[in-house]
Write a structure and sequence with these properties.
Bound molecules: adenosine-5'-triphosphate
Subunit structure: The complex is probably composed of two ATP-binding proteins, two transmembrane proteins and a solute-binding protein.
Strand content: 25-35%
Number of domains: 2
Order of helices and strands: EEEHEEHEHHHHHEHEHEEHHEHEEHEEH
Protein name: Quaternary amine transport ATP-binding protein
Strand order of the largest sheet: 6-7-8-3-9-10
CATH topology of the largest domain: Rossmann fold
CATH class of the largest domain: Alpha Beta
Oligomer: single chain
Keywords: ATP-binding, CBS domain, Cell inner membrane, Cell membrane, Membrane, Nucleotide-binding, Repeat, Transport
Family: Belongs to the ABC transporter superfamily.
Subcellular location: Cell inner membrane
Helix content: 25-40%
CATH superfamily of the largest domain: P-loop containing nucleotide triphosphate hydrolases
Structural class: alpha/beta
Number of helices: 14
Length: 315
């Protein structure tokens, strides 16, 4: 869906913000770009919608060079959500959401229906929120509107630059959970920038870890945890020392009836990360046994929730 081929961005002062970056982002994938401050995440993101021009290499969207797209079409086909969402302060929520559909000259009935649909999608009641101004919403609600606005004209790609970083931990977690649920339905190609590994593990289908403008490792959360390419990855992922430690997984077990669990491999409710990751690499779901009784199931998302929770605790 999005291909970077040997992409570099060099500033006039000689700084390489991004250096020889090659990556293929698949359709419907949520790819997380993560790395320390200054590693080139935002620059990489902004090159996709041509907010920053590249110095070398090329980027293709669906086999077409981004330089060959009409700039307006390119921007309309790419939703963009930022940390400081910058809703238009003098415009109501419905007007804010309608910006791109209006530019694309959708008819008014269609726009109206779409606004209702989007507000439902992001968990805000249209009757309550349509006519409000942005400053009459909480930070978390404003971010939800930001997501709705980015999705308005149904673009295939969404770029998200630390969208939840300014929120308190509870709202942040709620928005992350809701994004996971939303993505199950909309299946957009999402590029998500964060510097928070617990967020990356939780949200990413794959994670691309950057340093000094280049890629250190790209892989699924499990791959980064189980097969870190080097010490930098090991340190950045930060849970390596405790992988052998036994932990309690009961809090993330999903209830299930005995029939559903009959043919699943079983695992104890007290296990090590290594043990559980090894089993989950072969099986989608496992049945959890506690005191000789099957108490429910666990899947990849459950494990990622435990790992990201542990990392929150380590901060
Ligand atoms: N206009 C500019 N001129 C010169 N250097 C720049 C410019 N903009 C960014 N840079 C440099 O490019 C590098 C990458 O910046 P970028 O914003 O992409 O990093 P980042 O990984 O998103 O960082 P953060 O997590 O702090 O947002 C940094 O070293 C930065 O100082």
């Amino acid at each position: 869906m999005i291909s970077f081929e040997n992409v570099s961005k060099k500033y006039d002062d000689g700084t390489y913000a991004v250096n020889n970056f090659s990556l293929h982002i698949k359709e419907g994938e949520l790819l997380v770009l993560i790395g320390p401050s200054g590693s080139g995440k935002t620059t990489t993101l902004k090159m996709i919608n041509r907010l920053i021009p590249l110095t070398d290499g090329y980027i293709k969207i669906k086999d077409k060079m981004i330089s060959d797209y009409d700039i307006h079409e390119l921007r309309w086909d790419i939703g963009y959500v930022l940390q400081q969402i910058a809703l238009f302060p003098h415009m109501t929520i419905e007007e804010n959401i309608a910006v791109v559909p209006e530019m694309k000259k959708w008819d008014q009935t269609e726009i109206n229906q779409r606004i209702d649909e989007l507000l439902h999608m992001v968990g805000l009641e249209p009757e309550t929120y349509r006519k409000r101004l942005p400053n009459e919403l909480s930070g978390g609600q404003q971010q939800r509107i930001g997501v709705a606005r980015a999705l308005a004209a149904n673009p295939p790609i969404i770029l998200m630059d630390e969208p939840f970083s300014a929120l308190d931990p509870l709202s942040r977690e709620k928005l992350q959970d809701d994004l996971i649920e939303l993505q199950k339905n909309i299946k957009k190609t999402i590029v998500f920038v964060t510097h928070d590994m617990s967020e990356a593990l939780k949200l990413g289908d794959r994670i691309c870890l950057m340093r000094n403008g280049g890629i250190v490792q790209t892989g699924t959360p499990e791959e980064l945890i189980q097969q870190p390419a080097n010490d930098f990855v090991r340190e950045f992922v930060g849970i390596d020392q405790s992988q052998e430690k036994i932990m309690d997984i009961r809090e993330v077990v999903e209830p299930a009836n005995p029939g559903e669990m009959e043919h699943l491999p079983v695992i104890s409710s007290q296990v090590s990360i290594n043990e559980i990751l090894a089993l989950l690499s072969e099986q989608e779901q496992l049945a959890v046994v506690d005191r000789d009784e099957k108490i429910g199931t666990i899947d990849r998302q459950g494990i990622i929730r435990i790992l990201s929770g542990r990392m929150e605790a380590l901060k």
